[in-house]
What does this fold into?
Amino acid sequence: MIYPKDFEQRIGFDKIRDAVSLLCGTEAAQRLVREAAFTSDRTALARTLGETAEMRDVLMLESDYPGSGYTDMNRFLRKIRIEGTYLEPAQMTDLAKALELLAGLTAFFRGKRAEGNDPYPLLGALTEPVEDFSAVRREIARILDPDTGTVRDNASAELAQIRRTLREKAGQVDKRLQAILRQAQAAGLVDPDSEISVRDGRTVIPVAAVNKRKIKGLVHDESATGRTAYIEPIEVVELNNELRELENEERREIVRILTAFADLLRPELPLLLAAGEYLVRMDFIQAKARYALGMDAVLPELADGPQMRLRQARHPLLEKALKKEGKLIVPLDLALTPEKYILLISGPNAGGKSVCLKTAGLLQYMLQCGWLVPADGDSRMGIFDSLFIDIGDQQSLDNDLSTYSSHLINMKTILRHADDRSLVLIDEFGSGTEPGTGGAIAEAVLQQLEERHVRGVITTHYANLKYYAAGAQGIENGAMAFDLQNIRPLFRLEMGRPGSSFAFEIARKIGLPEAIIRSAEEKIGSAQANAEKHIREAARDKRYWESKRERIRLAEKNIDRTAAQYEWQLSQIQAEKTKILAEARAEAEKLLAEANRKIENTIREIRESQAEKERTRTARTDFDEFRRLIAGSETASLSEREDAIERKMRQLREREARRKERKAQRASEEADQQGDAVSKKPEKPREIEPGFHVRLKGQQAVGEVLALQGTNKATVAFGHVTTVVDKARLEIVPHAEFRKIRRNGAAAGGDSFGAFGSGGGSAGVESYDTSKRRLNFRQQLDIRGMRAAEALQEVQSFVDEAIVLGFPQVTILHGKGTGALKEEVRRYLKTVPLVLSAADEHEEFGGAGITVVKLDV
It folds into this structure.
C-alpha cells in the first residue's frame, strides 16, 4: 500500500520519472518508465535491479557496446499481421536499423558469455532467447537501397524492365518538349528564360496567358497572378499518358514486392515481436542505467527483512540543484534496524530534518520501483510492503479541513493499516495545534507505532517525544548537527542523541532584540532552558570523547605495532651482536698473528746481526709488551661494543616491561571496578508510588511521580514536562541520592532536575577556566626543528586544546624542508575525527610550509 495517492509528488519521484523518460530512445520505453510500479516481490526486484546495475557497468566499462539508435519496430510490425498488408520502404528502413542493433546486442552479450566468465549474467540471460534475424536483414538489403531508402531496380526482373522503359519514355518526352519550347520561344510565345515544369505529374511549358490559345494542348495550371499558364502540348499528351501508365505499373510492382516481403515475415512475426519487446526493454534499462551513472548510484545489498542502513546517501534532486549552484551536498548516514526500528530526528529549523526524511523515503521508493540509489555500495536496504507519508501542509478548503485535521486523518490511516513491514515517514510530528495537546497525542501515536514494530523516520521539535524515545526500546533519537560557533546548520545527521532547536541562538543571529530573547528565556523556565543547554553540552562532549576514544584506540594500535617492531629489532640486534663478536674475534686473532710475525722477524734479525743477549732480551720484552697492549686494546674495544649492545637490549626490555605493566594495571583497575559493581548486592525492589523520585533507566534526568495509571504506567514530571511512562522503564532514586543531586545542582547555580542527560554534578573533575585559557591560547603552533615524535606530541596537545576551547581553525608551522615532517603531521590529523580538513596555507602566507586545520567544534 502506498499512501497518499500523491506520494510520488510529495517525495519528488515524479521528477525522476521525467528525467529518465528523456533518456529513452523510444516512446514505448518512455511508457515503461511511466508504468514502473512499486513492488515488494523480492525475486523480481532483485532481477530488475541487477539488470540495471549490469547495464551501468556496461556503459561505464565497455567501449564497444552497441547501445544507440533504439527503434520501436513493433509499432509497424503489428500492422502486417493481416494478410495483404505490407511495410512501406521507410518502415522497412527503420526495421533494418532495429535488426542491425539487435544483431549487435546479441553478438555482444553472447560473446561475453562465450568467454567463460560472464560479467553480465542477467543481461545475457535476457538476450539468450532472442534471434538475430540475419536472413531478414539480407532480404531487406536485397530489396532496399540503403542510401536512398527506395526499392532497388533489381528487386525483381519486372521492376527492372518497367523502370528501363520509364527512363526511355521520359527521355522522349523531354526531347519533344524541348523542341516545342524552342519553337515557342522563337515565335515569341514563351519567354526566352522559361524552362520545362511539372504539374500534377505531367510535363508542361509555361506560356504567357495572352498566348495560351496559340499553342494547342491541355492547360494544367496557372500562376498565382494568372499571367502564366502551364500547358501540356498536344504532341506529348500521349507520351505523358504512357509515362503515367508505366509509373502505375511501377507502383503495382513495388507493392507486389513489399507484399511478398511481408508474407515472408509473417511466419516469423511472433519472434520478431518478442525481439521488439526486447529492444524496448533494453532501451528502458539503459535509460535507468544512464541516470544512475549521472547521479553515481549503486545497487545496495538487499536485506531479507524490512530494514534500512544508508551510508553516504544523497537526495538526487537536491544534489542536482546544489551542483548547479556550485555547492556540494552533505551525505546522510541513517539506520533502521530490527532493534531500533524508528528514528526520531530533532534539531533546528532549516537544519535538514525534512531532507533526511525525504531522502530515506525517496531512496526506498526508488529501490522498490527498480531504480539504483545514490549511496555507498555498503548500504543495506530491505523490502517494505507499504509506505506511508505525512508531510507538508495538507489543508483543504474544499473539504473544510484544517492543517491539523489533515494530519489526524493521516494518523488514523497509518494506525489502521501500518504493520511491522511498513515504512512510515512523518514530518513535524504533532505540529499544527496547541503544543501540549499536540505533543501528548503525538506521544500516544508514537507509542502505538513502537508497540506494532512499525518502521519509521519521524521529525519533531517536541521535548516529550525526545524523552519518550530516550527510554523506548525500539526508538532511537537522532539530531541534525549544528555549528554553535558560527550559528549555522551542518546538515549532518548524528544518530543516538536528541537535537536542540537552537531557537535562541538563531534568533540572536537573525538580530532579534536581546531584551525579547531574555524575556523568552525567562518565560520558558529554567528546566527547559537547562534541558536545551545540556543537550548541546552532551553533543559537544560526545564528539570530544569520541575523538579521544578514537585517538586512544589508534595509540594502542601504534603501541602494539611498536612492540612488535621492538621484538623484531631485539632479535636483529642479538643476531648482529653474534656476527660483530665473531668478526671482532677473527680480526683480533689476525692482528695478533701479524704482531707475532713481526716479533719473530725482529728477533731473527737481531740474531742474524749477532747482537748481545741482553739487547736481544730487551727487544723481546718490548715486543711482548707491544703484543699485550694490542690484545688489551682489541679486548677493550670488543668489550665496549658488547656493553653498548647490552645497554640497547636492556632499554628495549625495560620499555616493553613498562608498557605491559601499564596495560596490566589498567586491566586490573577495570576488573576491580567490575568486581565492585558485581559485589554490591542489589537493593530489594520497591513498588513505585506517587511522590517517589524516579528516573528512566539508563538516563540521568530525575523526575517526580505524580500519579499511577493502572498497574503498569505512571505519570511523571521531569521539570515542566509531564509524560506517561511504563513503570518497568523507571527506577527509584533513593532519598539520599536525590538530596545529593539537588545539593550539587544548587551549588552549580541551576536546576538539574528534568534536564535531559544531566549528570547532576561535577565531583572529581579538575577545574578548567575556559575563558582564561581561550584568552591565552595561540592559534598557531611552530614545530620547526623538532623530531617527528616530539612534533606529533605537541600537535596532539595543541589540537586537543583547540577542540576543547572551541576554536574552529588553527595553523601548524612546520616549514617545507624535505616534507617528511609535514607528511607525518597530515597523517596524524587524518586520524582525528573532529578535523574537517588539513590543507596548505595560501601561497602569500606561507604555502606548503604551513598547514591550516579546520575543526568541527
The longest strand covers residues 475-483. The CA atoms of residues 521 and 529 lie 7 Å apart. Confidence is low (pLDDT under 50) at residues 394-400, 673-684, 747-768. The radius of gyration is 46 Å.
